[in-house]
Amino acid sequence: MPVTIKTPEEIEKMRIAGKLAADVLEMIAPHVQAGISTLELDTICHDFIVDVQQAIPACLNYRGFPKSICTSVNQVICHGIPSANKVLKNGDIVNLDITVIKDGYFGDTSMMFGIGKTPSHADRLIKVAQECLYLGIEQVKPGNRLGDIGHVVQKHAEGMHYSVVREYCGHGIGSEFHEEPQVLHYGKPGTGLVLEEGMTFTIEPMVNAGKQHTKLKPDGWTVETRDGRLSAQWEHTLLVTATGVDVLTARPGESF
Ligand code: MF3
Ligand code: CO
Ligand code: CO
């Protein structure tokens, strides 16, 4: 399937799905505390998505993923599986990645949380990863190219002596979870797909404190840093508008 340009009707549905995904992060935030398990976070999100939002948790059974959200703690880069055995503790960092389907359209967003008093090196990593996302978003406008996004993300992360994960990337999104194009978080300015009004895709940089290399756990899902050091990720679903970008999963307090 080629890259699709969304119709105004599709965009309206994506706005709704994006808002719902953002609302899940707002809802769960006060629960993300020392002593809660990642399975409890999953259950709360699942029930909210299904019962309150009357939407579908997109991760559940997606290619065999067993839970409704991804919970990636410390050295886990992405796709962490919620578990009763994974109880959050003081000093941990965790990414919660939420994807919902409403009326056939997807909204996908993730953010980092620090548990209690986190080390300053962890706070720095979290902040730089968010800055990488925001710098990428600033590049989204008609006529710019995907390589412009990848370049600013890579430059900022590497400039801080962090590294960018290569094996996982952002993606087109719409009536399917993962559509074309692939949105790499590294690259060269002026290269790659030219952005056009009506495209929808995610930017979701994974930034490692140490080296870029990843390791897939035997569960077939959990992706960790090979060197065991921390990783941080933030994600938004974006719409290319006539003049720039709409952040479909923006939370209150974020201004673009
Ligand atoms: N939400 C992830 C992304 O940003 C994908 C999770 S797939 C799952 O693309 F199966 F692990 F849930
Ligand atoms: Co995504
Ligand atoms: Co996601």
Structure description:
This protein has four helices and 15 strands. Strands 1, 2, 4 and 5 form a four-stranded antiparallel sheet that branches. A three-stranded antiparallel sheet has the order 3-12-11, with no helix packed on it. Strands 6-10-13 form a three-stranded antiparallel sheet, with helices on one face. Helix content is 27%, strand content 25%. The protein is of the alpha+beta class. The model has no long low-confidence stretch (mean pLDDT 98). The structure holds 2-amino-4-trifluoromethylsulfanyl-butyric acid and cobalt (II) ion (2 copies). 2-amino-4-trifluoromethylsulfanyl-butyric acid (MF3) binds next to strand 4.
Question: How is the secondary structure organized here?
Answer:
Layout (H helix, E strand, L loop, with lengths): L7 H21 L9 H15 L3 E2 L12 E4 L2 E3 L14 E10 L2 E10 L5 H19 L7 H14 L3 E2 L5 E3 L6 E5 L16 E4 L2 E3 L5 E3 L6 E3 L5 E3 L2 E5 L4 E3 L9
Antiparallel strand pairs: 1-4, 2-4, 3-12, 4-5, 6-10, 7-8, 9-14, 10-13, 11-12, 14-15
Helix pairs in contact: 1-2, 3-4
Bound molecules: 2-amino-4-trifluoromethylsulfanyl-butyric acid and cobalt (II) ion (2 copies).
In short:
This protein is α+β, with helices and mostly antiparallel strands and 256 residues long. It contains 4 helices and 15 strands. Strands 1, 2, 4 and 5 form a 4-stranded antiparallel beta sheet that branches. Strands 3-12-11 form a 3-stranded antiparallel beta sheet, with no helix packed on it.
